[in-house]
Amino acid sequence: MLKDKIAVITGGTRGIGFETVKVFAENGAKVILFGSRQQTVEKALRELAELEIQADGYWPDLSDYAEIEETIAKIISQYGKIDILVNNAGISANQPIEKTSAEEFAKIMAVNVEAMFNVTKAVVPGMKKHDEGVILNTSSMVSIYGQPAGVGYPASKFAVNGLTKSLARELAPFGIRVNAVAPGITNTDMVASLPKEMIDPLIKTIPLGRIGEPRDIANAFLFLASEMASYITGDILSVDGAARS
Ligand code: NAD
User: Fold this and answer.
1) CA triplet 44, 48, 50: central angle to 5 degrees?
2) By alpha-carbon position, which residue is closest to atom 10 of ligand 1?
């Protein structure tokens, strides 16, 4: 489905991003993953090599636009272009507002929203040059109704939806589609770090009766990245077992 496409995936070292790297590669894409540290990027690349998946990796500081621009330029000089960008890096929060500092709130907006803005801004000129491209963002089901604590997280994901819908309109004339996937609770380290008392009652409310697996989310990214979704842009695709309703 993605034969010979060049895909950059942020937060590609584990969880949803790592699974998306695998699914894209299995479908013929050449994948460049971003992670926060050299060590975790190299570990992910080693795990991929064991699966006979050849990928590249970088660890630019996603808050530093100049560093991102330099990394994107390197990728374009090596691969010729970038067809698909998946903005997936993210962090969560679960503390009540009075226990949340302004710095913590700012950090979550920096990783979940500003980084998405920075990487997208660096990739768009190359996509415009080729009159095509796909940008996919990781949102969350909490971007639909919020969550009972950790307000920075849903606030950041509402912003992700805003970026997605607005950029879809701005970039459609250039053949660039922009969509997001809004996962429900998904079986990754991010969820493992949340208190059991918070997760268990949520699972009971999921109509499909289970939490999502990273592959459920990766498959949605695959569909949206492919030609099968050629008339879909500005959409936030829920992949949550109907947990949102
Ligand atoms: P994870 O913690 O397993 O992976 C997060 C990824 O983001 C890692 O690759 C990490 O390196 C990267 N990252 C984090 N901070 C970074 C930083 N400062 N700079 C660069 N990279 C950074 O989590 P996951 O569950 O796979 O989450 C991936 C995305 O899915 C996130 O955007 C998250 O908000 C979203 N999401 C997850 C769930 C869930 O239940 N797991 C639900 C909805 C949405």
Assistant:
1) 120
2) 11
Instruction: Give residue limits of the domains in the chain.
Output: 6-239
- How far does residue 128's CA lie from ligand 1's centre (Å)? 28
Ligand 1, atom 39, lies closest to the CA of 186
Q: What is the pTM of this model?
A: 0.97
Q: Which amino acid is at 123?
A: V
Ligand 1 pocket check for 17: Cβ under 6 Å? yes
Tokens representing 245 are: 């309703």
Amino acid at 137: N
18-54 pLDDT, tens digit per residue, is 999 999 999 999 999 999 999 999 999 999 999 999 9
Q: Is 118 in the pocket of ligand 1 (CB under 6 A)?
A: no
Q: 6-239: what fold?
A: Rossmann fold (3.40.50)
Closest CA to 61 of 85, 96, 36: 36
Q: CA distances (Å), 5 to each of 8, 76, 83, 142, 227, in order? A: 10, 13, 6, 31, 11
